[in-house]
Design a protein that fits this description.
This protein is an alpha/beta fold and 270 residues long. It has one domain (3-268): P-loop containing nucleotide triphosphate hydrolases (Rossmann fold, 3-Layer(aba) Sandwich). The protein is built from 13 helices and eight strands. An eight-stranded mixed sheet has the order 3-4-2-5-1-6-7-8, with helices on both faces. Strand 3 and strand 4 form a beta hairpin.
């Protein structure tokens, strides 16, 4: 049975689109048919993170308006044949989104894919509401800082009240990803600890992604970090994808790296 999963946050800049790309590719690497859909109308960048910006010909809005077939707009990933991408429009704005057209599009995608991952726009305006409207599940992406947690808490409230499931008395299943965690800063009290975040949001933890400078480089190169076997962030995304595919994978909390004697001696002579 297919799942529609919205990836949301309360504010921009927390790594939501990067999470969408890496989780989608991670699911595909687990042998599941997956499509990632860019709902950020007018400001798409999921195509660049996936390295597919030059292959975009038709977009989601053209499919919904029946100016192009779904097959024409879907783009297969270069990295894994199980992953497809449906781009947002750069020439329209979020006002073109209509519930009936979105529902039909998602029904068509459900027929073809086991996982339909929707990258929501930043903020909590109409584009956000359209992204969550027909979701079965949601991934909330936060950074371990007060402003991100506060804004995400508000986004969760809107998810519970304005999704179709919420309106019908049900509940969208929620998962939490804590992104860009620096264990040293957590230890010094400069970042919120995992337990504090969970207490505030009361959402099941899906995974913790450590701060990793390689994530930006990988995104800029159109080669998501989940493909990098040497990356700690890539390993975190691979574990997250396995959990979404139903595997029981232990949660791993990033640890402070202890400086060894050799490193200390090198530091003295820098």
């Amino acid at each position: 049975m297919s799942k529609v999963i919205a990836v949301i946050s309360g504010k921009g800049g927390v790594g939501k689109t990067t999470t969408t790309a890496n989780v989608g590719l991670g699911i595909a690497r687990n042998g599941r048919q997956c499509v990632v859909v860019d709902f950020d109308i007018g400001q798409r960048n999921l195509d660049m993170i996936l390295g597919l910006e030059n292959r975009v010909v038709y977009d989601m809005v053209q499919v919904m308006d029946e100016e192009a077939r779904l097959d024409q707009a879907l783009i297969r990933s270069k990295a894994n044949s199980n992953l497809y991408f449906l781009p947002a429009s750069q020439t329209k704005d979020k006002s073109v989104l209509e519930s009936e057209k979105i529902e039909k599009l998602l029904k068509d995608l459900r027929k073809r894919f086991e996982y339909v991952i929707l990258d929501a726009p930043a903020g909590i305006e109409s584009g956000f509401e359209h992204t969550i409207e027909f979701a079965d599940e949601a991934i909330i992406v936060v950074n371990p800082e007060v402003s991100s947690i506060r804004d995400s808490d508000r986004a969760i409230g809107i998810l519970d009240s304005k999704s179709r499931k919420g309106k019908e008395g049900g509940e969208v299943k929620k998962h939490l990803i804590i992104n860009r965690v620096d264990p040293g800063m957590v230890e010094r009290g400069e970042m919120l600890a995992t337990d504090d975040i969970l207490e505030i949001l009361s959402v099941d933890l899906l995974g913790i992604v450590p701060e990793d400078k390689g994530v930006i480089d990988a995104s800029n190169q159109g080669h998501p970090v989940v493909l990098d076997d040497e990356s700690e962030a890539g390993a975190a995304y691979r574990r997250i994808a396995k959990r979404l595919c139903g595997e029981r994978i232990p949660l791993v909390e990033p640890q402070v790296k202890k400086e060894g004697l050799v490193d200390k001696l090198k530091g003295l002579f820098r």
